[in-house]
Amino acid sequence: MAAWGKQLSDTDIAAVITYERNSWGNHTGQAVQPKEVKAARGKAA
């Protein structure tokens, strides 16, 4: 599978993760911030 690093912005990825964490009965109320995605990208590189 091709990398998505350049396809989605940190804001886009944060929105997707926030949706996943709060969907299908998982009402965590947690919102992922773009700065958290940026930090995770730095660790993965």
Description:
With 45 residues, the protein is mainly α. It has one domain. The chain is 51% helix and 0% strand. It contains 2 helices and no strands. Helix 1 (10-21) packs across helix 2. The protein starts with 9 loop residues before the first helix and ends with a helix. The model has no long low-confidence stretch (mean pLDDT 86). GO terms for molecular function: electron transfer activity; heme binding. This is Cytochrome c, mono- and diheme variants. It comes from Chromobacterium violaceum.
Fold blueprint:
Elements: H1 10-21, H2 34-44
Helix pairs in contact: 1-2
Short description:
The chain is mainly α and 45 residues long. The chain has helices at residues 10-21, 34-44.
